[in-house]
Amino acid sequence: QTQEEWWRGAVIYQIYPRSFYDANNDGIGDLQGITEKLDYIKSLNVDAIWLSPFFTSPMKDFGYDVSNYRDVDPIFGNLEDFKELLKSAHKLDIKVIIDQVLSHTSDHHPWFQESRRNTHNSKADWYVWHEPRSDGTPPNNWQSVFGGSSWQWDSRRQQYYLHNFLVSQPDLNFHNPEVQQQMLDEMQFWLDLGVDGFRLDTVNYYFHDEELRNNPGLKQDIRKLFNPYDFQRHLYDKNRPESIDFAKRMRHLVAQYDNRMLVGEIGDKHAEKLMQDYTGDGDKLHTAYSFRLLNKEFGAGYFASVLAQQESLLNDGWPTWAFSNHDITRVASRWAEESQNPKALTETLLALLFCLRGSVCLYQGEELGLPEAELEFEQLQDPWGITFWPEFKGRDGCRTPMPWQQNKVNAGFSEVSPWLPVAESHYPLAVQQQESDSDSSLHFTRHFLAFRKTQQALQKGEIKHIQAQEHQLSFVRLCKDTQPLTCWFWLSDETKELKVPDNYTLLRSYNCDYNDDKIIFHGAGFVLLQQDD
Ligand code: TEU
Ligand code: CA
């Protein structure tokens, strides 16, 4: 594996710092806590970590509202702690990717404080300001992802400003060249410190439609839609050509350093074309991920159609896949809740994730097979969930603290009451518990990822012959110098018999019996078959 292309096919472990490990016992996870757990992370056989934001922030959106891009929020530690984490990770040959939330800042950011003073200050045009319509209402019908109009009236400046997310997350005006340069400078700060890459938050939201055209097809009663974006053709954050130009500028910047990478988050219903636009031709982002397999839809047929679409549209672009993250119901609950054997299905899905063509994000706790935590309304922290409860319960259920030890208070995450409670259902699934059980999801993950490192086709190969029939999904991974690898998944509780053709060798199997040329599945499971010469 060439150093330059380490990201291609890499497994990236996503850490939500607030909830990983609390080293100083104040109830909130921190950078030192991550450093202390690096040996555990290394033991998973992942290649990199992606840290959700740890920058200075009033934490209205738990760090996705940045008020200083170049410092660590005191809740997480300080810059020295980050350098220590980086050094320790590199010693273990773990790459470090950090989140960059460039599309918007916090309203506490000095740039916004300056910008809102009046219409003629040095930062006056750094955000998206506009006059009201003649009747005083917002400039157009755009909706915030988190609900309500995406325009907020500012009584001081006597204008509206744009916010795609919370009111406290004003949208930066990327059409202003000064803003573009500033954001590149912010990134450079971290490149100079030695980070290996950036996860670019909402990379397709940077540029808005300067004509401020209304969204067509907006449903009348938007108030009940917890994700209005699904119902709009959002003219202002689609694939604007300016975005692609700026992606090139970011690539140009990171290319001045050795072996750095960019992975973009593309939030759009029809993401495949955008993913190609953003990652093709080798002069923009290295890779990008969409929400296509982060939603509720499930089944062999659906998976096959997503994979096939991606294959046909993503020519030379490179996808990254995730089944879970800090915004979405954990996969064990989202897709495996109704299964009679959720553990088998969850582990089968982990194997599927690791067999897809692309890089992979594994969200903290996914290796333990954690289900979504159930929370009461009173316990909620996420403003999105608080707004739309109970139709939408928000994102706290996937953000509760990691369980480390079953028999300790707060499952060993912290000695004091954490910012979100550890789920009751997570105690028996704690790391220490799973370490001592050779049949655990933790060991499954670890072993599969070790095996994956030996399979060039799984890491970098092509994907061909994508097929679905009933509950079975199969495809072939192949690359130049190795034998084609057939990956065959059974995604149902039912028993299933599979006949193996003569010229195949069984490389790996799960939840099945094998005799002669017959494989019998006892429920969800998989086999990996190598074609002989
Ligand atoms: O999430 C982006 C996000 O919420 C959208 O992409 C949305 O899910 C999509 O449009 C659905 O159609 C990122 C972060 O991951 C999240 O935690 C932040 O709250 C958000 O940006 C704002 O910074
Ligand atoms: Ca702490």
Automatic annotation (TrEMBL):
UniProt keyword list: Glycosidase, Hydrolase
Protein name: Alpha-glucosidase
MF GO annotations: alpha-amylase activity
Any one Pfam family match given in the protein's UniProt record, by short name: Alpha-amylase
The UniProt record lists the keyword Hydrolase: yes
Family in the record: Belongs to the glycosyl hydrolase 13 family.
SMART domains on file: Aamy
Domain Glycosyl hydrolase family 13 catalytic stretches: 14-399
Gene Ontology terms: biological process: oligosaccharide catabolic process
